Amino acid sequence: MSPRKADAVIVRKFPIEHLDPMTLLGHNDSNLRHIEKSVPVRITLRDGTITVSGEEDAVGSASRALKELVELAERGKIVEEADVATALGMSRRNGDGAGRLVDAYQGAPGYAFDRKTVRARTPMQAEYLKSLEDHEIVFAIGPAGTGKTYLAVAAAVQALRQKKVDRVVLVRPAVEAGESLGFLPGDMQEKVDPYLRPMYDALADLMSYDKMRRYIELGVIEIAPLAFMRGRTLHNSYVILDEAQNTTVRQMKMFLTRMGVNSRAVITGDISQIDLRDPDSSGLVRIQEILGHVADIRFVYFHPEDVVRHRLVRDIIRAFDDFHARQTGTVEDGVGTSLDPAAPARAETPAAPAAPDDPTE
């Protein structure tokens, strides 16, 4: 008796002799193992050929993703885990009409600094870098580890080097997350410095300590708490507001109206990490309904698949998302459809019905 078509084993082959294996496969073939973990197929590599075997639908999905990744490697991109996750997602959503992953990176700028070269590591990072070049105000919203702040600082330093702006201003709200600012030792500057440390760290990763210190002493680079922005007008400046989820609507308005002639502003934040007493008062939560219709303001939304830190960070974020889904009865990924209209609804973990006394959005 012949097996049903659904049970038939399908085999697809991808020759990769022309590629550096590490460019496509990752360390210890980790990219192939990621596909096997996500799709029920068996993948082998022998004599410069990748072989995918399994049932027809699964092989089709894995093969479409592999085709995208091979083309990416052929263009010189080192394929990373985030690329694999994106390619698999595109394959599932679009089927045979999957978009070309390589197109997402087309035209994205890269920057070479004293210490390292900065390039997009995910398609959404590429979209973000292009937006930073093309728009004067950009909002970047999404979970931790997606490069929102780091890439904004890199773009700001690049603009400074190219003399497109005269200075870079890095701003953060000094909002307490369970600690009391008043009990910290030192004067006001010493009290707020711990809140600004991530901004120093990003700069230190891009330039030498001596150059960073000289720029700060000359006022070419300024790192300050948000409260210090009131009453100022910033001309010829690249201004970044980090941790914007901890601003109120009034503070967000105050910051945005500091912009002067020939200035750019980038606002970054993660709405799943709001430290305000009333999370609903966050300016970042409300900002799209306020400014969504304003021309030339760009909103970029990152999702867990864009995380470029340790792979467990992505899993941790998804675990918390699933936990909140069970609490509220909604399925979102820290940005979700409430903010990002293009975000596909997640179906992997159905939300449990909300308890009668649970508020839902």
Q: What keyword list fits this structure?
A:
361 residues, alpha/beta, 6-stranded parallel sheet, 3-stranded antiparallel sheet, 11 strands, globular, disordered C terminus
Question: Can you offer a commentary on this structure?
Answer:
By secondary structure, the protein is of the alpha/beta class. It has helices at 21-25, 30-38, 56-74, 81-94, 101-105, 123-134, 148-161, 188-204, 209-218, 249-256, 283-291, 311-328, 336-339, and strands at residues 10-15, 41-46, 49-54, 111-112, 117-118, 137-141, 167-172, 221-225, 237-241, 264-269, 297-301. The strands form three sheets. Strands 8-7-9-10-6-11 form a six-stranded parallel sheet, sandwiched between helices. It has a three-stranded antiparallel sheet with strand order 1-3-2. The chain is globular. The chain starts with 9 loop residues before the first strand and ends in a 22-residue tail after the last helix.
